[in-house]
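JOB MANIFEST
job_type = single_chain_structure
chain_count = 1
residues = 561
[input]
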Amino acid sequence: MDDNASSVQLVHRKQVEKDSTAAAAALPERPGSKKLATQCELNQVNQRKFGKTSFWSQQKLQTFKHTAVHRLTRAHSDVYELLWQHEPCDVQVCKDGTLQCHMLRDSFLSSSRNYTNYRGLLNLCILLLVMSSGRLVLENIIKYGLLVKFDVLLRFLEDPTAWPGVFIVICLNFPILFTYFLQKLILSGAISINTGFYINVVNILSILIVPAAYIWNIHPNPVSSAFALATSSCILLKLWSYCSINRHCRNQMLQKGRKLVHQKSISDFRDASDDKLDEQNDATKSEGKRKQPDVSNDDKADNVSRDSIDSNRTDLVHYPDNLTLKDLYYFMCSPTLCYELNFPRSSRIRKRFLLRRVVEVIFLAGLMIMLIQQWIVPVLRNSQKPFRASHWPGIVERLLKLAIPNHFIWLIFFYWYFHSTMNVVAEILRFGDREFYRDWWNAESVTRFWQDWNIPVHTFAVRHIYKPLLTRGLSKNQASIVVFLVSAFFHEYLVSVPLRMFRLWAFFGMLFQIPFAFFVQRYLSGNYANMAVWLSLIVGQPIAIMMYIHDYYFDYFYPQP
């Protein structure tokens, strides 16, 4: 019996040695290190395995041998190449036959390890966020009950104070039509260019002043008033761009003495003054050429039919052929603030893509309304007591309690407006340029955030405010400060006028961004700078909201004698 067992063991050992020899011969040399195992080393392992060793050693060697042979026999497969690169063997056989399991290497969480795959931790954070949010929702419902009113839209429409805002939006057609006929009169020579310029300025300022004066005297609903003023501000900026580009084309036509022919979009036309600024704006242009984010699988399926403006198109519009009501109202409805004679257009309307975005618009709008009613309103109501008592620990606690839901709703609003809503409008109009935002969440400076989170406004500011100021001799910092001042004015305009009170919290909040931007740029970098930007977004907005709600509450519910 012992002889038979020995013979079987010998045959088995020879077969393993034969397989190991063939696999080791085909094994390629690993660059920068020694082979995992050679024929001689495997023979040594076999001798030790079948010698007199303890049970633990036999099991350990058996496991190692099985792993080594298995990897050697897959020397030419793709999986084997992946094992070489990402899954190095933790146990290696030295030339003297000993097993080596230690080597020079850093911990996974050390920066020198260059390890970046934290997907599991991200999944953990998502689960913790969902669980903590679920607990807050349950706690809120237990404490306050269900505060959501599903007929809020009907109540809004039945509210007579909501209709003045709708009336303002309808009346915005008058300055639009006035601008169109004024451009026609300037082109025909009935009005001089300088006179037309001043009339345009008065017309644009009327869009800013008249709706604000109307809201201040009529006392409409603050929500409808904010919507009306936001719409009028967009129309104001659009008409500003429309008049500027048409004036530019008209001057070029007069200089050349003929009709101006554009083979490309008007945005590709550059002044000689812009050419002088090329070297000064290299940094800004390089930031604008960052890598685009990946597209989802559903969008890739629908993205086949999207075409930018074709260089062989024969329907390019030339000045003054663009002075039509159709062209003007297409620009008024387009999701951009910068006018061009020829916008990039997609070849067709993608119905599946449009349907997904419409569903997102409806769902996210309802979700924001419910979260505001159930989560934001109770916090704001309970914050009045510590404010009246000037109890600072209570004020800070209310502020921190408001920061999370406010920021969560702000993120939903960003996706709802800049991705879903603007893509719906762009898809219906076949508007080709869909870069409404960039990766602002990776911003490592305040300036980078404001450049990337709202591309239409940023493009308008660079094209019609920043660059013209540079051509007039201002430095980059001075021009940037002017842009921040204009942005601060509109932020205050859109908050103070609907609430009918001027407290300048939004204005000073925007101005505070200027020194904060210098501080972050000079003293912070990398992840620390990105966290500073996120901190300003999470804490800054709730502070402004608390101040406005506090003043609004005291002015209208607790007026001073």
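[summary]
Confidence is low (pLDDT under 50) at residues 26-61, 68-88, 259-312.
The radius of gyration is 34 Å.
exit_status = 0
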